[in-house]
Amino acid sequence: MTRNLRTFLLAFAAVAALVVTTGEAAAWSCRAKSRYADGWGYSPVLATAREEAKLKCQLTTPRRTPCRIVYCRR
Asked: pTM, whole model, 2 decimals?
């Protein structure tokens, strides 16, 4: 393997790793809370992150206790 090819492959791998990690950093994180529990949701789509947070909160909360979204951040 020549030196130029090795340099090119190393640069390509670095760029690919950067693209993958940048995509994950752009995800939404939301927190839902009730009197008894809380839940977190993560997704690139805001609505999905909100629903996941509420669902995780409701799974650990006694029946008929409402969970509400406290905040969502990118």
From this structure: 0.65
